[in-house]
Design a protein that fits this description.
The complex is a heterodimer. By secondary structure, chain A is mainly β. In chain A, 0% of the residues lie in helices and 55% in strands. Chain A contains no helices and eleven strands. In chain A, the strands form two sheets. In chain A, strands 2, 4, 5, 6, 9, 10 and 11 form a seven-stranded mixed beta sheet that branches. In chain A, strands 1-3-8-7 form a four-stranded antiparallel beta sheet, with no helix packed on it. Chain A is globular, with a radius of gyration of 14 Å. Chain A starts with a strand and ends with a strand. In chain B, 0% of the residues lie in helices and 45% in strands. In chain B, strands 1, 3, 4, 7, 8 and 9 form a six-stranded mixed beta sheet that branches. The N and C termini of chain B lie far apart (36 Å). The chains are: A mainly beta, B mainly beta. At the A-B interface, strand 5, strand 9 and strand 10 of A face strand 3, strand 7 and strand 8 of B.
């Protein structure tokens, strides 16, 4: 069974840091681009970051560039999101998702169960 | 950047057909994907590449895409279809996805 399991969420003060992890199983992790997508409470879906199969290319939404870092360890079938200088508007459920399809025909399937990050004093 | 526009809400009676639109400039030239997110649950892919359904998704779910509008059609709507629905395309100019704002489907 293809599965993604996130961990690492929690309550953090503004300006603090947090590292999210996503454990993948049931597919060849090293063959896929991977992404983080977040959803603020009561809001829609917002893409956060992408990483290429070998980690050589990374892309970020403007609001997190310079503060967040996406990375992966193919030997451990794991995806990470290092989040620094956290702000209240970073509060959201963070989903790990596999990019499927091909380049311009890309979608997300599957999604992890999500991990909640709350930034508050 | 590319923008996708969805109506905030759509309401339909059980057994009727729901149509959820996703507007974008010349969206017909792009590949559109749809997700269903029930309250408190994870998004689930229900249509990809405009018209294809993943295994396990009922045939009641179908998609179309032409001109400036893509449409998710849900036939014979059931109470269990009540959810938020999101469209998504991939913006190749910046190599990242774009999501619509989401549509809340209410089954009356």
């Amino acid at each position: 069974e293809v599965q993604l399991v996130e961990s690492g969420g929690g309550l953090v003060q503004p300006g603090g840091s947090l590292r999210l992890s996503c454990a993948a199983s049931g597919f060849t992790f090293s063959s896929y681009w991977m992404s983080w997508v977040r959803q603020a409470p009561g809001k829609g879906l917002e893409w956060v970051a992408n990483i290429k199969q070998d980690g050589s290319q990374k892309y970020y939404v403007d609001s997190v560039r310079g503060r967040f870092t996406i990375s992966r360890d193919n030997a451990k079938n794991s995806l990470y999101l290092q989040m620094n200088s956290l702000r209240a508007d970073d509060t959201a459920v963070y989903y790990c998702a596999r990019r499927s399809g091909s380049w311009s025909h890309s979608w997300f399937d599957p999604w992890g169960q999500g991990t909640l990050v709350t930034v508050s004093s | 950047s590319y923008v996708l526009t969805q109506p905030p809400s759509v309401s339909v009676a059980p057994g009727q057909t729901a149509r959820i639109t996703c507007g974008g400039n010349n969206i017909g030239s792009r590949s559109v994907h749809w997700y269903q997110q029930k309250p408190g649950q994870v998004p689930v892919l229900v249509v990809y590449d405009d018209t294809d359904r993943p295994s396990g998704i009922p045939e009641r779910f179908s998609g179309s895409n032409s001109g400036n509008t893509a449409t998710l059609t849900i036939s014979r709507v059931e109470a269990g279809d009540e959810a938020d629905y999101y469209c998504q395309v991939w913006d190749t100019s910046v190599d990242h996805p774009v999501f619509g704002g989401g549509t809340k489907l209410t089954v009356l």
